[in-house]
Write a structure and sequence with these properties.
By secondary structure, this protein is an alpha/beta fold. The protein is built from eleven helices and nine strands. The protein is globular and about 45 Å long.
């Protein structure tokens, strides 16, 4: 694994300094109150303003982990020094969490009683909306933390796009050039197996069943670790798997499983990289530094790959 720089310092304590144009809770669908996104733009006039899309984690159900969790990282992302034209952070419908200590879900709340594939359908709808509203095309980086990383790689899995194409009569979505999975869950059954003897076993069983149902065959079909990316993500240029050895909630086997899937579905035009972060599972996004490290690494890698392509074609 590569080690990201520990010398990165926060350039601004106020994310509005780098991204003064902000639009929060923008609706991309009328399905529920959680079908919204936040836009952070350095200028209001860029013709292609959205280049970095973030998907939050929270075990598909935590109402306190939302699109706003990207904000601590924004103070490290200077558009003047990085090839980044803007940031969008997505919300999506959540699975039931009736036992949440402060914000329990209610049975009648459409926004918090979702089950797979509702989560990925929401993410695909958000990307479709962005591509229509901002002419985003394929030149974007998709970043996800924890189950957000699951969703990021599900975006380029054929089965969800095929379902969408059948429903809409067309599949006009353009896939991202790069995906960054941060502390990701890539094999749900393996996650359950890894922690079956720990104090987390009952919690993991509960949120996995809440998100995917009791049939573990559905878990497997939904797992990026079992996907074939060779045919489903043909335009992909970069896949980054970022993980911390201090992660107490997602073990290294998740990275191993995803690395195998990427290797099996290897596209000769795509570069696959693993990088080492530091900090516990939620600390990676809470202080912003480690999430920003992963984003900055991917932006520079992708810029280099695209520059090499231009030189080779000239």
């Amino acid at each position: 694994m590569k080690q990201t720089s520990a010398q990165l310092h926060r350039m601004s304590t106020d994310h509005s300094e780098f991204f003064p144009v902000q639009q929060t809770s923008v609706s991309y669908s009328s399905i529920s109150s959680l079908n919204t996104l936040d836009l952070y733009l350095p200028t209001p006039s860029s013709s292609h303003p959205v280049k970095h899309n973030y998907i939050h984690g929270g075990a598909w159900r935590d109402p306190l982990v939302s699109s706003r969790t990207v904000q601590p990282a924004l103070g490290y992302l200077s558009p003047k020094e990085l090839p980044i034209a803007g940031v969008v952070s997505l919300n999506y419908r959540l699975s039931p969490y009736p036992t949440h200590p402060t914000h329990p879900s209610l049975p009648e709340d459409v926004a918090r009683n979702a089950r797979h594939p509702a989560h990925i359908e929401d993410v695909l709808n958000a990307i479709s909306w962005l591509q229509k509203e901002y002419d985003m095309g394929e030149e974007y980086v998709l970043v996800g933390h924890s189950c957000g990383a699951t969703l990021a790689f599900q975006v380029v899995m054929n089965q969800w796009r095929s379902t969408r194409a059948t429903a809409s009569g067309t599949d006009s979505l353009q896939m991202p050039l790069a995906i960054v999975g941060v502390e990701g869950i890539y094999d749900q059954s393996q996650l359950k197996e890894s922690y079956k003897h720990s104090e987390l076993a009952a919690i993991y069983q509960e949120f996995l069943e809440g998100a995917f149902g009791k049939d573990e065959r559905e878990w497997s079909r939904a797992s990026p670790g079992s996907a074939d990316f060779a045919h489903s993500w043909k335009n992909g240029k970069l896949a980054v798997l970022a993980w911390s050895q201090d992660d107490e909630l997602v073990d290294e086997l998740q990275i191993v499983m995803m690395r195998k899937a990427l290797h099996k579905g290897k596209n000769e035009k795509r570069k696959d990289v693993m990088i080492q972060l530091t900090g516990k599972h939620d600390e990676v996004w809470e202080n912003g530094l480690q999430l920003a490290n992963a984003i900055i690494f991917a932006l520079h890698e992708l810029a280099g790959l695209l520059s090499s392509k231009i030189i080779a074609q000239s």
